[in-house]
Amino acid sequence: MKFRRLHLLVALATLMALLPIGPAAAKTTSPPDSASEHQRIVDFWTHERVSRAIPRDFLYNPDSGRFQMAKPDNPGGGKGGGGGSDDGGDTSSVLGASWNKNGAVADTTGKVLFAMDGSYYVCSGSLVTEGAGDRSVVLTAAHCAFDEANSRFATNWMFIPNYDADPAPLNTSGTFCAGTSYGCWTARALVVHDGYASQPAFNDQAVRYDFAFAVLNEGGHDSQTQADSLGSQPIDFTGDALGADTYAFGYPAAKKYKGNDLVYCRDGLGFDPFNSNETYRIDCNMTGGSSGGPWFDDFDEAPGTGTLTSVNSYGYTGVTAMHGPMFNGSTEALYTEATRAKADTIVS
């Protein structure tokens, strides 16, 4: 397996792509000091910048015949009411409701903030069990970590676990991260697949690889506690059977949602017929900001635990459904690299 690596250059506040050569011969750049890099990113996210963060979500528009970024109806960091319950009258499914049962899923699912191409964005993510003692890893969508149009990684990437418990008010004084329940956890490395990074736009090829992992710096309020202390969720790479009971979570921030409420959907797993059945589909009305939020199989509501099987990825204009990539060997290779990555990495 070959890697094409991009390394953080803090002094320039940008990223430099290295030649696509094998890891043994690759040139390396020492990663920035984790404590100072963490503080730099935390300081970057002022209340004003958070208030300007918008969802980076994609909808397929049949009129144009391509995916387009969804219109940001509300700021991604907003504070206000949640989405409420909407199951369409079917008690076996939930199309979008506030998650009020707490449990592990409340702590392991969080809001994601990042900068990309001069704009500020919001997505969702989940702490994933990684088996590495020196790091914590977050699963999210590739389009919440990599700018496919400009072939660049996101910058100032930050994960806020259990934002639902204490959404930070967007005022002009104090520190944004200090107002959250567990503080903010910043990324020291982002890992995406070449199947996504090689695409010039978000398209039907990119959606099949729309998963990514973020390796976290130490963070939180005291810069000592590892995010692992909050727990994590196991991940499966073998795929699920059609009809499996699936739960999806996220922090939708557009239309009726305000971005401060952990929302979930529950439905039988299906496939996207418009993408040659190569991606998943569930009925769900979550909107922009939920991208990267986790999908679970074998989910137990009482402890709030399950097995990660996909992430919120994309939708279709006028269709009440969420779609996500199938986890497979490519996802597993990405996960393996995340357990050892020291810089932003593209896995091929």
Task: Explain what this protein looks like in three dimensions.
There is one protein chain. This protein is mainly β and 348 residues long. The chain is built from 5 helices and 23 strands. The strands form 5 sheets. It has a 6-stranded antiparallel β-barrel. It has a 5-stranded antiparallel sheet with strand order 6-16-15-19-20, with no helix packed on it. Strands 5-4-21 form a 3-stranded mixed sheet, with no helix packed on it. The protein is globular.
Top CATH class: Mainly Beta
Calculate the terminal CA-CA distance, rounded to whole Å: 7 Å
Write the CATH architecture name: Beta Barrel
Total number of beta strands = 23
Fraction in beta strands: 25-35%
Q: How many distinct folded domains?
A: 1
Helix percentage: 10-25%
Shape, per Cα inertia axes:
globular
What is the alpha-carbon Rg in Å? 18 Å
The largest sheet has its strands arranged as 7-8-9-14-13-12
- Which blocks of ≥5 consecutive residues have pLDDT under 50? 1-30, 74-90
Structural class: mainly beta
Quickly list its features.
348 residues; mainly beta; Thrombin, subunit H; 6-stranded antiparallel beta barrel; 5 helices; 23 strands; 10% helix; disordered N terminus
